[in-house]
Amino acid sequence: MTGSLEPPDARQRDEALDATRSFIVQAPAGSGKTELLIQRYLRLLACVQEPEEVLAVTFTRKAAGEMRSRIISALNDAASPDPPSEPHLRRSWGLARDILADDARRSWQLPRHPA
User: Fold this and answer.
1) CA angle 100, 101, 106 (to 5 degrees)
2) What is the pTM of this model?
């Protein structure tokens, strides 16, 4: 990575958040795939009337548990008025804050009932 704080694949990551398109994400371990998938999940939540309309499928129960845990953490972290200092977490924080606003408006109660 050069002097920029953005990863070299920033444009592709932005494109992956387009809720009108489908994507396949392939990258090596530690490259931020899970964070990108969490961001996409949060973006998709912003496009539906009910959270049950969004479905995420993983290959293992462990991966599903990790995704669920990190989405819940993103929602909990978004309750803070202060964004995280890391750019990739800041994006998740912003998306999660949008969901919390929807949650309040629609009475979803996602933080209390994430299932």
Assistant:
1) 95
2) 0.84
